[in-house]
Amino acid sequence: MRVLAAMSGGVDSAVAAARAVAAGHDVVGVHLALSTAPGALRTGSRGCCSREDAGDARRAADILGIPFYVWDFADKFKEDVIDDFVASYAAGETPNPCLRCNEKIKFSALAERAYALGFDAVVTGHYAQLRDGVLRRAVDAEKDQSYVLAVLTAEQLARAMFPVGDTPKPEIRNEAARLGLSVANKPDSHDICFIPTGNTQAFLGARIGVRPGKVVDSESGAVLAEHEGVHGFTVGQRKGLGLPGPAADGKPRYVTGIDPETSTVTVGSAADLEVWTITARDVIWTSGAAPEGAVDCVVQVRAHGGTAAATAEPEGSGMRITLASPLTGVARGQAAVLYREDPAGDIVLGSGTIAGTSAQRSGRVAAHAGSTESQ
């Protein structure tokens, strides 16, 4: 096959490209220029898309003997990932920009251009397994990225390749060293790639501005503090709340609800964070079709979070997830990813963007989608 290898400049994508070459494919490497200021986005293990990364990707392509190009997707990345990230926080949500990048950039804009140029598939260095069109968790549980790939449709998965998902990360580094790739020991990127300082609140504040509001107690309704914008908070947050002290019982408070319309942040106890029901929008079923009824599964609501047994059922274009045991710190804007446990690597059933939660076991969705009920 003629395949396009997305090469970020890191070790995983370099080895993915190398494995595609070894498998006999006709491989072309491409580096995505996603920053309008590419010299400023790498600080050690933070950031990406710097000139250093583009150079590392080019050198890896040279060693592999494959053609290499740089494609400028900076405007598309800003519109579909960065602007979406900012807007979501302004709306009181907690988005995942890596998931959005996969959905809008790597497997949409990039893939569409690749197919138009006659490529059969897109190769990336994501840690996930793909067998007969079925997306599964990677062998290396600590590096598994199936969560951020769960937004891909059946059509996109049919033309994707994840060559490193069947191998633990240390072995990938050893393989890169054997191939003579200079990125063999390059640090992994951490945090949000377009915020190299790691200061998300400062990044958002510079773009959203000051939108003052109040921090109120969930039980008494008493105003405990003032804040400069709901973008500085997420459900489940404990630190940086600007409170004068712990609750009357001496226990810490957590953010339990965010109302962007009134700019109100509600805080309460750890028990107030428990969620038993989740509703989701923008649902993707990776098989290409929604199930006819409820399905037993496990659900994950954070990229590196734990899972809970659940039952998921389509509801129009959305879905309702009923949990067998409660999850905490579930925020609107996060992805709810459904898995079916399987000895060969858990199978991804689908995903949706969390739109509301409820603390009622059987119950209704929270009347206010920005809050988590506790009764």
From TrEMBL:
Root EC class: transferase
Domain tRNA-specific 2-thiouridylase MnmA-like C-terminal: 277-354
Marked site: Interaction with tRNA: H126, Q334
Pfam families named among the record's database cross-references: tRNA_Me_trans, tRNA_Me_trans_C, tRNA_Me_trans_M
Gene3D superfamilies linked to this entry: Adenine nucleotide alpha hydrolases-like domains (2.30.30.280), HUPs (3.40.50.620), Translation factors (2.40.30.10)
Record keyword DNA repair present: no
GO molecular function annotation: ATP binding; tRNA binding; tRNA-uridine 2-sulfurtransferase activity
Region (Interaction with tRNA), start-end ranges: 143-145
Coiled-coil intervals, chain numbering: none
GO biological process: tRNA wobble position uridine thiolation
Localization per record: Cytoplasm
Residues where ATP binds: A6, M7, S8, G9, G10, V11, D12, S13, L32, G125
The keyword Oxidoreductase is annotated on this UniProt entry: no
Chief place where the protein resides: cytoplasm
GO CC field: cytoplasm
Active site (UniProt): C101 (nucleophile), C193 (cysteine persulfide intermediate)
Domain (tRNA-specific 2-thiouridylase MnmA-like central) ranges: 202-268
Keywords: ATP-binding, Cytoplasm, Disulfide bond, Nucleotide-binding, RNA-binding, Transferase, tRNA processing, tRNA-binding
Cross-referenced InterPro entries: MnmA-like, MnmA-like_C, MnmA-like_central, MnmA-like_central_sf, Rossmann-like_a/b/a_fold
Catalytic activity: S-sulfanyl-L-cysteinyl-[protein] + uridine(34) in tRNA + AH2 + ATP = 2-thiouridine(34) in tRNA + L-cysteinyl-[protein] + A + AMP + diphosphate + H(+)
Enzyme nomenclature, EC number: 2.8.1.13
Family that this chain belongs to: Belongs to the MnmA/TRMU family.
Physiological role: Catalyzes the 2-thiolation of uridine at the wobble position (U34) of tRNA, leading to the formation of s(2)U34.
Protein name (record): tRNA-specific 2-thiouridylase MnmA
Organism listed in the record: Hoyosella subflava (strain DSM 45089 / JCM 17490 / NBRC 109087 / DQS3-9A1) (Amycolicicoccus subflavus)
